[in-house]
Amino acid sequence: MSSSDEEVSWVQWYCTLRGNEFLCEVEEDYISDKFNLTGLSEMVPLYRHALHTILDCFEPDDDDDKEQVQKSAEHLYGYIHCRYIMTNRGLQAMVDKWRNGEFQTCQRAYCNNQQMLPIGVTDKPLAECVKLFCPQCNEVYTPVKQRYQSLDGAYFGTGFPHMLFMVYPQLRIKPHKDQFVPKMYGFKIHDTALDVQLEKGKQIENQRKRAENAVYQATKKVQKMQYHIENSKKQITNKSEKVTEKDKSGKSEKLPENQQISESKTASSHNQLKQNPSQTLSQKLSSTNSTSNQTSTQINQINSVQNMEIINMENPQNLIWAQQDPPSYQSTQTSGNPVKTAADYDTQHLDHAITATERLVLNEAGDGSGSLQ
């Protein structure tokens, strides 16, 4: 400490620091008594230097050592303070501070700015900051000012307010009768109303989830159906393309197949002639015989017609048949040509039939080209 601060002790200086206003000044005699410090040497590092610093008996030369000793002294003083405020002298010092309004007031509306007392929610060091206890509503609050949140709650302990009212029962404040009652439209809300609403809210939430799940499943099914429809469409298009390709290929291959068949037939016929000429000739002779029989029947019919015409010519009265024949058989006499009768036309047809049969026989005996060899 400097020469200007020689008259102020370390305890007074520490209690006047910003954020330490809740602490009271512990008497030097209480700090000097080793009985009151039992067990603290194990909780605080550099215990002796820290104790000497509190009693203004030690000041380290090195700055690093000074900082470490200062921190240990602060922790040691806080633990001593927790024990001191549980004594009669400590309680009296805290009552004076309480009456002077050095602690904050309760923010509850029905407490009417009741002064609160500092308290710790746990005795474990460096666990929680100091809290404020309201004797009107028996509730604990966090200090409004930010600077008090760096003050350890273990410096006050969990039993200080209760010890104060045990020692000073006349200071105890009766709880206020006015209590806040939640109302709606002038009616008190039943305690189970919130539970009922909560249950309804859960039911609605479950219904919403089920609806969302149903919609999700439905969309999934629709997507599957669309996928199958698209696949079926693709398959149908592929099949139709294949069918069209087959049709095109079949049409293009029809002509060469017919040509191949005709060529194969001609080749097979030539092979049969080379292999079995007697058998093929016999077959062709049988076919020519059948055609000759047909021509013979036609010749007989023509002869019968000629005979009938000769008879009619001998008997002029029987010329009715010649007059009733078609005009092709009755030609007028022109340019000195004789009249052609039906017999003349029949003989011409006969000549044509004979020449046709001869050609057929020659073709059958030859190579099928219609010319003699």
If you had to describe this structure to a student in words, what would you say it looks like?
Helix content is 56%, strand content 4%. It has a three-stranded antiparallel sheet, with no helix packed on it. The chain contains ten helices and five strands, in the order αααααβββαββαααα. It is mainly alpha-helical. Helix 7 (193-275) crosses helix 8. The termini are far apart.
Topology at a glance:
Layout: H1 10-15, H2 28-32, H3 47-54, H4 63-84, H5 88-99, E1 117-119, E2 131-134, E3 139-141, H6 160-167, E4 183-184, E5 187-188, H7 193-275, H8 277-314, H9 320-323, H10 342-365
Antiparallel strand pairs: 1-2, 2-3, 4-5
Helix pairs in contact: 3-4, 7-8, 8-10
Short descriptors:
disordered C terminus, 373 residues, 56% helix, mainly alpha, 3-stranded antiparallel beta sheet
